Amino acid sequence: MTLSWVSIVRLGLVQMALGAIVVLTTSTLNRLMVVELALPAVLPGLLVALHYGIQITRPSWGFLSDKGGRRTRFIIGGMATLAMGGWLAAVAIPLFETGFAAGLAVSIFAYVLIGLGVGASGTSLLALLATATAPRRRAAAATITWLMMVFGIAMTAVIVGKLLDPYSAGLLIRLVGAVAVIAVVVTCLAVWGIEARVKARPEPELASFREGLTQVWSEPRARNFTIFVFLSMTAYFMQELILEPYAGLVFGFTPGQSTSMSGAQNGGVFLGMLTVGIAATGLRFGSLRAWVIAGCLGSAATLAAITMIGLWGLTLLMPAVVALGFFNGIFAVAAIGSMMALAGEGRDRREGTRMGLWGAAQAIAAGFGGLLGAACADILRHSMTDASAFGSVFLAEAFLFIAAALMAARTLDRAPHPTAAHMVPGE
């Protein structure tokens, strides 16, 4: 028995809960460190890079899913670990004011927990989707679950942003704690009983982890796609840690306003994903390759616009950020659709191992890109105005998106993948 549409939507709630916690740690807490606490942007960059670096364990989580199944325990346990890490990361914020060493120690521990939680829960969830979803529904399942995740991110950022003004450390801890508890409860209810009703592993995995990973890496399509994921995700995440500080330092946004801006950006991501879902699946307009390229080039153009807005002092940051989210969403959902379609290809259909490999490439690129963007902004601010320093990083990111578009043109199929033609719910 394969996953029904209702079960797919239920698993999407897990992605929604995961995104709700992560957005607070990578946007709101990052902005508070840089603006309110006046810490260098490289510090939250290193912390976020740490949690992404921990996710290099994703292939092993995926391999365990291939080998033994029982993914529910990894999904719930990972979410609980993520929730604890997110709450501790909020607790560390006021500790920085009383003692830097204490705040840093708690933050390091918190972001290690975040990385472990995202790796265990997220990879196990994707492995369950890839192995228990009928082939004709895989790309649709990816689209649905990612739309729900982005909706959760946007909704959390907007609501927390409104509730966080006027800002206080106690209010921050209570809000993050509430989000964390809700995320764990939603995850438990969402996954309960699903795995028992589906065949999550078609056949036992006999190879060792090293053998399985080596065999997947030897496949040209899997290897080339891994390289594409790394390049494109580096571009995608370079602005993640500096966009809210940019809004605060250059445009004078309050913590609540910049958090709401993050929510608006993710609202744009949601619209971009929805556009591809309707156009590429309902109307069957354009290939996944074409949508990936369009999203990359559009992202590059809007990053250039965000740079010019800051240099010219225009009050158009919010619509430009929403446009950036829109093109990011187009790129992301097309890349995810390609990923889900490719997950079952190749030797022995090792869906979990492939998803883990690509997830690890994404995590490493996210950590590297976020840290690179934050470090470059810190260095350039010593010799430039804030607007010029941040703008230089945005332009570098735009060039990376252009490079990713060129690589997508060489790597991905020109025609829509056969799986993508069956992305319409209701079959």
Question: What's the short story on this structure?
Answer:
The protein has 427 residues and is mostly helical. 79% of the residues lie in helices and 0% in strands. The longest helix is centred in the N-terminal third of the chain and has 33 residues, at 100-132.
Key phrases:
single chain, 427 residues, mainly alpha, Growth Hormone, Chain: A, 15 helices, disordered C terminus
Question: Can you describe what's shown?
Answer:
The structure is a single chain. By secondary structure, this protein is an all-alpha fold. The chain contains 15 helices and no strands. Helix 5 packs antiparallel against helix 14 and helix 6 packs antiparallel against helix 13. The model is unreliable at 416-427 (pLDDT under 50).
Using the coordinates above, name the CATH class. Mainly Alpha
The CATH homologous superfamily: MFS general substrate transporter like domains
Report on the biggest sheet.
none
The percentage of residues in β strands lies in under 5%
Just name the CATH architecture.
Up-down Bundle
Q: Estimate the mean pLDDT confidence.
A: 82
Distance between the termini: 15 Å
> Total number of helical segments?
15
